[in-house]
Amino acid sequence: MGKVYHFSKNAVLGTLVLAVTALATIIALSVAYHKERANNQSKPGNGASGTSSTSAPPTTPFTPKVPWDYYRLPKGLKPESYNVNLWPRLKPNSDGLYIFTGNSTVVFRCLKDTDLIIIHANKLNFTNFKGMHAKLSSHHEEAVPALQKSWLTARTEYLVVQLQSKLKAGAMYALHTEFMGELADDLEGFYRSEYLENGLKKIVATSQMQPTYARQAFPCFDEPAMKAIFNITIIHDPDTVALSNGKEKSHGVPVKVTTFEPTEKMSTYLLAFIVSDFISIESSTSNISIRIWARRTAIDNRQGDYALNVTKPILQFYEKYYSSNYPLSKSDQIALPDFNAGAMENWGLVTYRETALLYDPMLSSTENKEKVTNVIAHELAHMWFGNLVTLHWWNDLWLNEGFASYVEYLGADYAEPTWNIKDNNILNDVQKVLAIDALASSHPLSRKEEEVSKPAEISEMFNSISYNKGAAVLRMLSEFLTEPVFARGLSSYLNTFAFKNTVYTDLWDHLQQAVDNTPGLDIPRSVSEIMNRWTLQMGFPVVTVDTQTGTVTQKHFLLDPDSVVGRPSQFNYTWFIPIKWMKNGVDQQQYWLLDKTVSGEEWVLANTNVSGFFRVNYDLDNWGRLLSQLNTNHQVSHVHGCGSIYKHIIRHCSANKNTELSQLDQSECRNDTAEPVAVSQYSSMLVHSCVLLDKYVLGMDTSNSILPSTGGRGRHLEQNRTPLRHGNKCCLFLPTFKQPDRKISLVCYLNNKITMKTYICIIFAPLLIKTYKIPAFFAGKWIKKIIFHQNKATSLFF
Ligand SMILES: [Zn+2]
Q1: Is the pTM of this model over 0.85?
Q2: Per-residue pLDDT tens over the stretch 286-324
Q3: Between the N and C ends of the chain, which has fewer C-beta atoms within 10 Å?
Q4: How far apart (Å, rounded) are the C-alpha atoms in residues 239 and 254?
Q5: ∠ CA 518-521-524, rounded to 5°
Q6: Is 378 annotated as a binding residue?
């Protein structure tokens, strides 16, 4: 336990003087804050937090005429296996370029007679075989057609081979290519990551194949349904280690060539190849070898220990939850200095940003620890849902990502049962995406397969609707089916389709079977009828409960009620809504709102535990009764009661310009014992404020150093940055889960010393809260209780 300090009056007075001097800066900060916030919000392609714009500059529509004009592969050829040999060079060549060379032989079956071979390839230079890009051989005894010509298509990213006669349906062939590519630092395909260690530049060759970059590493049928077995061999320097999806099979001494066990039947986007001089720590379960890989100094400083500790229970949880063994013999996880997404679920070799896998107990923030747990739980959830059973095409991405975004809380909760981390699902997914999905420009979760074919269209799918709304509606589904029924349906789905591909209706079918086999479980429509309303139309309803008239109504909720919804819906923007509710503090039987308007009973609090993906409005009297109830005992409902009620009020005020509502005395909601989890809705705003404090008051740019985003897909270079290096930073931190002592902490690190600069940080916190109009409820008495961490978490209160 840490030591407790008390501020002397003089110190506080001195600090106040400084605070006043800097008051003007606060005003400047306010402007800068909003500017930066707007900038951040408009960053494109952020996987978990942004929305992707679907608008593109007008272009002349291109009409495909020949098979290689289409973005989707023809259906005539199906790969069975690949032999891929790659040799990345970790030193530049005479032109100053980092390159890799390789060769690949893909064995494929012909399903339909054809004289064309179309296979994905991008940014590769091919070795010329008598004027051709490839060599074709028969896998067995079949006659092999001669090659007529071959060429590359830049737009659709193919290698096309025209044959002089046709391949025969049912026969197997092998296509061999040799090629060279650049190991560029573009974070795509087989790429180069750089970092400094003891002043020396180090190079890692690593990969990111999802969604369409495997074709930049070797020619392949680069679609998720084109599953095959991959036999990988990597050539590398003796002082480096090579990793891939399978376990290393052989490597000589000195290590020069590493071959790997053949993979299971899998999709190209889940492949990974890495060459580095990283080291690892390991443990195991009875059937899985678990390793955490990172830079030597990170491992030496024990930053991988936490990840290793939580991986085992999380894997064990999923094996039980899915009723399905982990499908591989090993689980490697590696922290990369340069990585685009927060993490990537490559089967058996998961890649992470350093800050999503490494945790330093001395210097990383508690929120950092929580993120590490969540990201690991997310990626490991994919080992079954996504990797073992893969969706047929990218239009169903929401199910893959929404699912992992939902169950990650179950896995993390199992590993850290004291955190109540499942509550965070409401903040991180439900509340977050309710704001985005309330816009008339939102879009449905599900898209038609033909709407998503170009690589750019596929990348657009990685947005907040897919991740957060996906998680929110699956959570609602699990709530109304109950978790055991949901898990049973899931298990039968995974066991039926192992090593295969599916469409989302396959999951509905298996969940329906689980419902049908559960006596006493009564849902008013089939799983697919209910879920279609949530997945095939955009937005969500606001349920209005009028306790005066006893009516319950639903309406499409729009943040701007005057906005025009241009996208028609086959369901006219009505939903089948499961409503959990309570009256006078007592939970009532779940209510299904199936029509637009229903006369009801006396309602008090609807959507308890925010289990449904909708907002709730009440008549004014009921709002008043709710607020007064929260004042006397805010714990009458779930932990999110107060926070979500308050949030509903804010939303209804802004959406409906409801001045009466805004005049309700919300200060009644103030409560000294308010749960931090409700407060943390504002934590990112406060953290951002402190980054600006650093920048403008203290002259340090920490914007790239604290509380990193884990879900983003924007370019994110983390060179020279690890949790350890937070040591010199000022960092404001509000926990997003309940801490044992239930205090909101403001953590400052400044060379591990308490200095006047850190006082500024502390004194500014309440001012910032005022500046950004953070409501009194959230800035209650607890903000004065500041835990000051110095070295071994020394605490200080005043
Ligand atoms: Zn994911």
Answers
A1: no
A2: 889 999 999 999 999 999 999 999 999 999 999 999 999
A3: N
A4: 8
A5: 130
A6: yes
